[in-house]
Amino acid sequence: MAKQVSKTYGSALFEVAMENNTLDTTLEEVLFVKQSFLENEDLTKLLLHPNIEKEEKVKVIENVYKGKISDEITGLMIMLITKGHQKDIVSVFGRFWKNFGNS
After folding, report:
1. What are phi and psi of 66, to 5 degrees?
2. Which of 7, 25, 33, 81 is the most core-located residue (most Cβ within 10 A)?
3. Would you tell me the crossing angle of helices 23-39 and 2-19 to the nearest 10 degrees?
4. Which 8-state DSSP code applies to residue 93?
């Protein structure tokens, strides 16, 4: 399932970035978010914690990333959280990176 989620959303993000001619900017933001997840273990734990409500997780993402990255990337992360796919955020961005490397 995780592979399907990352493929679907990562590829869609790539297609949107191509259509909007924002590939380089989107790549920078994707790398920024991936790095921030890797460096901040507490953020990852919070997003994966089963007893923390989705709404609280969304607020954290908004507080951490709003104004630092595009609304599209923030919105994608929020959508993944509301659909229960927060564990797939990094893999979605990994799929984007894979598509970018093949472009």
Report:
1. -55, 125
2. 33
3. 140
4. H
